[in-house]
Design a protein that fits this description.
This protein is of the alpha+beta class and 185 residues long. It has five helices and twelve strands. A hairpin with a 3-residue loop joins strand 4 and strand 5. The longest helix is centred in the N-terminal third of the chain and has 13 residues, at 3-15. The model has no long low-confidence stretch (mean pLDDT 94).
């Protein structure tokens, strides 16, 4: 399949609100994502994530960082269940448009709307997971003020190079609940 054909297929899934499974392989194995693709740019996809029959937040990743996109009878059955449960009618979509031109524009946009994020660098020898508010958006990197599982904010932000980022998540229940209970030393 050519890039153009692949993009046309993805656009068709967006237009038809197809439920899809994105198959991804990272350093530690499979890291698949299921849900609805909401936006596409030349380099990135925005997906609304499904977890345990609910739509729970969003993920952004590079189009060149997944192995396959599946939309088969299992995915169509899953969509029917979500529709029958009223989940698609009540929770499908996103109220804002994210500028998916580059990691820089993505982070600038997410910061503008005060989203805390999870940034994953899954292909590093030692994968990196950061959660927190976006503090600085630079030409080649982003700085996140990490918080630990106790909700304690680091004093200094952690800087991550865009080239290392494989996935950015935002506006899910895990992030939004933690955001309410953050504390400093």
């Amino acid at each position: 399949m050519t890039f153009k054909q692949y993009d046309e297929m993805i656009k068709s899934h967006i237009d038809k609100k197809d439920f899809v499974k994105i198959k991804r392989t990272v350093t530690e194995g499979e890291a698949n994502i299921s849900g609805f693709i909401l936006q596409m740019s030349k380099d990135f996809l925005l997906i609304q994530k499904e977890e345990e029959f609910s739509l729970n937040g969003y993920g952004i990743f590079r189009k060149d960082h997944f192995d396959a996109l599946r939309c088969n009878k299992y995915d169509r059955a899953f969509k029917k269940i979500l529709k029958a449960e009223g989940i698609i009618d009540s929770d499908y979509g996103i109220d804002i448009k994210i500028n998916l031109k580059s990691w820089r524009t993505i982070f600038e946009h997410l910061r503008k709307f005060d989203f805390h994020v999870i940034v994953e660098c899954e292909d590093l020898k030692e994968p990196l997971f950061l959660i927190g508010p976006i503090k600085r958006v630079n030409v080649n990197s982003v700085s996140i003020q990490y918080y630990d599982p106790a909700g304690l904010l680091d004093k200094k932000p952690t800087t991550v190079n865009y080239n290392d980022i494989t996935l950015v998540k935002f506006d899910d229940r895990y992030i939004n609940v933690f955001k309410k209970y953050l504390r400093t030393n």
